[in-house]
């Protein structure tokens, strides 16, 4: 019985080591895409802005970094560009947000499902 518990713990540690890195990479791509689709940043600017965001969290604990994954990528992109709540609730951003949520977000969620399944 204790050996099964040990094996489960080893598997949990393995997932804990592997999963966040890949999921964080996918999440960063999703934030980049939100910057491009919603806020019309070019790809290199969006990538640089996400890199700068990650640099701000460079010394954060893994738990803090994992909490970042719970933030809506559009909200995080809005924070990066300094968009107000009022701007997010008006055109043209509201249409772009709807488009992002309908077309881009499901692609990234499907990729995340594949990553999680591959580690299980």
Can you give keywords for this protein?
single chain; 120 residues; mainly alpha; disordered N terminus
What this model shows, in words?
The protein is an all-alpha fold and 120 residues long. The protein has one domain (2-119). 81% of the residues lie in helices and 0% in strands. The longest helix has 36 residues, at 2-37. It is globular. The two termini are 21 Å apart. The model is unreliable at 1-15 (pLDDT under 50).
- Continuous helix count: 6
Number of strands: 0
Outline the low-pLDDT stretches. Answer: 1-15
Order of helices and strands: HHHHHH
Number of domains: 1
Average pLDDT, all residues: 84
Percent strand equals: under 5%
Any idea what the radius of gyration is?
17 Å
Quaternary structure type: single chain
Structural class: mainly alpha
Report the span from N to C terminus: 21 Å
Largest sheet: none
The rough form would be described as globular
Helix content: over 70%
């Amino acid at each position: 019985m204790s050996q099964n518990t040990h094996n489960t713990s080893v598997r949990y540690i393995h997932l804990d080591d592997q999963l966040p890195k890949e999921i964080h990479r996918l999440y960063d791509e999703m934030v980049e895409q939100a910057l491009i689709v919603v806020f019309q940043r070019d790809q290199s600017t969006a990538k640089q802005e996400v890199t700068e965001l990650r640099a701000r969290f460079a010394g954060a604990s893994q738990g803090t970094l994992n909490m970042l994954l719970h933030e809506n990528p559009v909200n995080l992109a809005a924070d990066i560009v300094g968009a107000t709540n009022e701007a997010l609730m008006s055109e043209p951003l509201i249409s772009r947000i709807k488009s992002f949520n309908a077309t881009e977000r499901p692609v990234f969620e499907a990729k995340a499902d594949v990553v999680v399944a591959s580690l299980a």
